[in-house]
Amino acid sequence: MTSSDALIPNPAHIQAETMLARQFGRETANYFSSSPLNRLSFLRSDHPFLSAALQHPSTRFVLLKDLAPLVQTAAPAAPYYARYDEIQPLVPATLYDQSEEDLLNAYDSRTPAAATPIFLGLDETAPKREGAFTWKSYAGTPYFALDVTGPRGGEEEQQAPYRQVVEALEAKGLSFLQARVVMSFAADQAAIYAQARALIDWNTRNTFCGTCGQRTVAVHSGTKRACPATDRARPAAGRPACSTRTTISNLSFPRTDPTVIVAVLSADAQRILLGRGKRFPPHWYSTLAGFVEPAESVEDAVRREVWEEAGVTLSRVVLHSSQPWPYPANLMIGAIAQVSDAAHEAITLEHDPELEDARWFDIAEVEEALRNGVSALGDAPGPEYTEGALRLPPPTAIANQLIRAAISIDLLGGEKNSKI
Ligand SMILES: [Zn+2]
Description:
Elements: H1 4-7, H2 19-24, E1 37-38, H3 47-55, E2 60-65, E3 68-73, E4 78-79, E5 81-82, H4 84-87, H5 100-105, E6 118-123, E7 134-135, E8 138-139, E9 141-147, H6 156-170, E10 175-176, H7 187-205, E11 217-219, E12 224-226, H8 243-246, E13 251-252, E14 257-265, E15 271-276, E16 288-291, H9 298-310, E17 317-325, E18 330-338, E19 357-362, H10 363-372, H11 398-408
Parallel strand pairs: 2-9, 14-18
Antiparallel strand pairs: 1-6, 2-3, 2-5, 3-4, 3-10, 6-9, 7-8, 11-12, 12-13, 14-15, 14-16, 15-19, 17-18
EC number: 3.6.1.22
GO molecular function, one term: metal ion binding
Cofactor: Zn(2+); Mg(2+)
């Protein structure tokens, strides 16, 4: 079993001494962040680069089927990275022979959409072996993501190569990990999987233009989608006009939905505000969270959410850390906030009925829960857990990290409240 420590990534440049690190403390890196890959985003439309990376013997493919990742074993969960020859029936070696512009000009609505490898980046931490992939000044193991689900409702002829690839992988004892949320990969693997899942899901949901309703085409190695101007199937009429082609926003970009999540301290900093949703297990509480709205600062969103869900009025909000959450496209922005006056601590659930309960917990009770009451949502707490005591999310959840930080208060530069 992977230890909990291996699940939590190290912050970048962990040993570096900086004035900021002395002032604000160590950076917190959350699960799904700190990918080992250098994304090299500026090379995503460089077809000679992509062609070389696609077919290099060291290249690894993260495969998802109906968003479930391919794994060697389910427990402990370890992803299986496919080689090019294992997915070659879906991705011809000639894929990048034409430029992106030529491919868009050659768009033909009669041709089924091809599988789109998504370039994720180069793992520069991989040992530099003879024959390792290099491109200009960059060296490392290329990673691509590939959706092997196959066309939904497609003809048998279109489904066949996908089924063939999947069956060959399953014949090797590999399987697709079925889980609502995958949080058991080691830190580096989790970050790569998160990027793959978010981009595959976004491509799957955006096969039609949001402006004109016609089919879109993946470009920039699956990280953008374009609405082609012409269609070989209708050379005379072309495609109806679409404003995405005439304005500066001629591409659609992957979504990232900012979400705030906050550990709230009481005015005396001796208690933490936590809430529970209707579907949480008994005695399980977590930090309050919600979406950032258009034209709203993160700090304002934190104050609004906590007031709407719990009736508590916050003063100072301090940003702490963030966590990519690829279910489907969230960025959890973690904050610690404090009430300035005990009069603002009164809880009411009457504004927005989202929470089943919200409560102030003494720090001692929270410390006990962090020691013995944490577990993944569907799992049982540890053997030392006392039935009826507070339960909290695991360290892989940013909620846990925020609660730890709030009760240690290091980041605020003030006195340390807790020894946990
Ligand atoms: Zn369009």
